[in-house]
Every structure is written in structure tokens, then in C-alpha cells.
Amino acid sequence: MSDTQEQPKQSWWRRLSSGLKRTSSAIGTAVSDLVTKRKLDRAMLEDIEDVLLRADLGTEVAARVAAAVGEGRYDKAISADEVKTVVATEVEKVLAKVAEPLAIDAAKKPFVILVVGVNGSGKTTTIGKLASRLRNEGRKVMLAAGDTFRAAAVEQLKIWGERTGAPVVARPHGSDAAGLAFDALTQGRADGVDVLLIDTAGRLQNKTELMNELEKVVRVMRKVDASAPHAVLLVLDATVGQNALSQVDIFRKVAGVTGLVMTKLDGTARGGILVALAEKFALPVHFIGVGEGVDDLAPFTARDFSRAIAGLDD
User: Fold this and answer.
1) Which residues contact 293 (CB under 8 A, 6 or more apart)?
2) Three-state SS for 108?
3) Is the dihedral of CA 44, 45, 46, 50 positive or negative?
4) Backbone angles phi, psi at 177, to 5 degrees
5) Following DSSP, what letter does each residue of 249-295 receive, concatenated?
6) Looking at residues 171-191, what average pLDDT do you find?
7) pTM of full prediction above 0.90
8) Same-domain status, 120 and 241
9) What is the secondary structure of 39-77 as a DSSP string?
């Protein structure tokens, strides 16, 4: 493999490992402190389990990792790297089941992606980054500003549209989101668009209202294309930690989520929440984000994430 081919992988790995630095440092420092003091015993394994719980890996995974660390090692000295290797191996087993690229069916024209999530999760930015990625793949992309009650979201999407060369369908502030989705899909069909990305509202204060709005968006779109939406992506902000579990629960019921995108992993020491989500819901994880740049959203790979979170070198 030539240096030029190797380069993108390396730069993404560097971004990923530095983006997960808070999480890997929190795990690594605590593990190092534990293992230097004594030989492995039941109390140490409980301490290791606590470290993993604090990183939000979830009770099942934390217990499995601790059990794997203890296997055949009682009363022996153990190095921090040995523990980290076990962490990476066990985490990868969980994540390998959910690491799945976003498959776009070219026969569906446009392929409709409904993007959901609470306000502030990074939904609109994620749509912009996805649009950029899809445009770079040579696809014709259209954006729909379906979060009609937030003027800032509409403006932000228009900026991304200009940046990525994707047309944006928007309506005056407070317009009906379902009507906008209907118009966007109709226009997308007429214009031969490959992918239509639809932003949606994320107000969770009144779940019933949100539920009704999302259900109406889907119902109205199906008048144009009975198979739409073809993917429903839930964008989650890693910094909310355990709260992400209830968000998945709500949006799965409301919007029939087909896959996850996790953003802001660089902003938290609790990046393990992705592992807890994978263990609990087994929903495909398509992309993760570790920064603000357009290239900081990348397809999710189980091995890279597992090694980065454990603080191992590539």
C-alpha cells in the first residue's frame, strides 16, 4: 500500500484516538493506578469494573470485561497494557455486531434519510457533513429544513447547502414540517436527486407533540413514495452519557430508528456510552463524530473505536 493510500487512515486514527483521549485517559489512568499497587484479586476486579462503569460502558459489559481480566490471572501481577488489551477485545466483540455502513439503495430515487434527535445533539451539522460525504461520492443530494420552528436550524442548513452545493428546501418559520417533507420529496423526484436528507424537530418536552409531528411527516411522505423513509438516523450527543439510552428508547418507538450516529465523542470522558447502547439496543452504528470539521464524521469501525477507547496504539 502506498503512503498516499495509507495517509487518510492514519489521520482519521489520530483524530479518533485524540478525540477519545478523555475517555481512554480516564480508563487508562485509573487502571494503571490499580495494577501497580497489588496482585490481581477480587477487589481489584471490582475496582476495574467500577472504572468501566464510570466511563459509561454499562453494567453487562463492565462485568464481562472484569471477568475476562480475571481469567487465569489470580494472585499474579498484571500490567496496565494487559488490562487495556482485554478491554479492547471485549468491547470489540460488542461493537462488531453493530458496526454497519449506511447502505444507500440506488434503486430508490431519491433515497430518503430522515434525521432525528434532540435539539443540540448535532443533527443539522451531521446532515451537512453527510451531505458533503455523499456529494464527494458523486451523488446528487438535496436537503430539507424540516426543523421549521428553529430559525437557526434552517439558516444553518442553508449554509451547509451552499458549502456542499446541495439545494435546500425550506419554508417560512413555523410552517408545517410534513408539508415541507412532501414538497421536498416531490421536488427531489422531479429533479432526479439520489439522496434526500430531512432535518426534523427535536423538542422532547412534549413527547406526544413530537411523536405526532414525526408520524405525520412519515405518513405524508408515503403518499409520494410508499417505501419512504428508507433510513431513519438518530443523532446522539455522547456528552449526555446515560441520557442517550432513554433518547434511543423514545426515538425508536416514535420514528422507527434504523441506525445511529454519535457525535461529540471528543467532548466527554464517557465515550463508553456507545458500548452500552450497542449492548442494549443492537442498532447499527453508521458514523461517529470527534470534532467540528467536515472530515470529523467518519464511518464507524469496531476495531478502531475499541482500541482508541482502551488507549492502545493502532
Assistant:
1) none
2) coil
3) positive
4) -65, -35
5) HHHHHHH---EEEEE-GGG-S-TTHHHHHHHHH---EEEEE-SSSGG
6) 96
7) yes
8) yes
9) ---HHHHHHHHHHHHHTT--HHHHHHHHHHHHTTTTTS-
Better-scored residue on pLDDT, 12 or 287: 287
Name the least confident of 46-50, 281-285, 290-294.
290-294
| Alpha-carbon torsion angle 274, 279, 285, 288, nearest 10 | 10
**For residue 299, cis peptide bond before it (omega within 30 degrees of 0):** no
**Domain encompassing residue 34:** 3-96
**What cell numbers appear for 113 in the block?**
434519510
Contact 293, 126 (CB under 8 A): no
Nearest-angstrom CA–CA distance, 183 and 96: 39
307 Cβ contact list (under 8 Å, min separation 6): 17, 88, 92, 313, 314
| Separation of alpha carbons 65 and 70, rounded Å | 9
**Residue 196: CA count within 13 A, CB half-sphere:** 31
**Spatial separation of the C-alpha atoms in residues 158 and 149, rounded to whole Å:** 15
CATH of the domain at 46: 1.20.120.140
91, three cell numbers: 468491547
Q: What is the CATH number of the domain that holds 262?
A: 3.40.50.300
**CA pair distance 141, 132, nearest whole angstrom:** 9
Q: Using CA atoms, how far apart are residues 57 and 301, in angstroms rounded to an integer?
A: 17
Computed over its alpha carbons, how large is the radius of gyration of the chain?
21
